[in-house]
Write a structure and sequence with these properties.
11 strands, about 130 residues, mainly beta, four-stranded antiparallel beta sheet
Length: about 130
Amino acid sequence: QVQLVESGGGLVQPGGSLRLSCAASGFALEYRGIGWFRQAPGKERERVACLGRSDTSPLYDDSVRGRFTLSRDNDKNMAYLEMGDLKSEDTAVYYCAADLTLHKCEINGDFRYGSWGQGTQVTVDS
């Protein structure tokens, strides 16, 4: 079974923090590029963070840079998205994705990921 499962979403007040987890099974996340995406109602899916296999540090969308942090734990075969100083505009369903051929993330690249999670809802509201 090849699967990605997100968790950690929920309701948080503006200015608060959340950490999303992405658990991989059936394959080694260590050898795959990782992307975090979000999709708000009525809007297209957007990439918020990306880490290619050859990247030394993650690439972030301007809207989240300095607030979000992508990381992974190879021993646990998991990836994370730490989100801080959350804003109402961050409300969306968040997805993790992975692909074996994602070697280096590009700012405006439209990469086709081979594996996707089901998403976890993040709601930022007072």
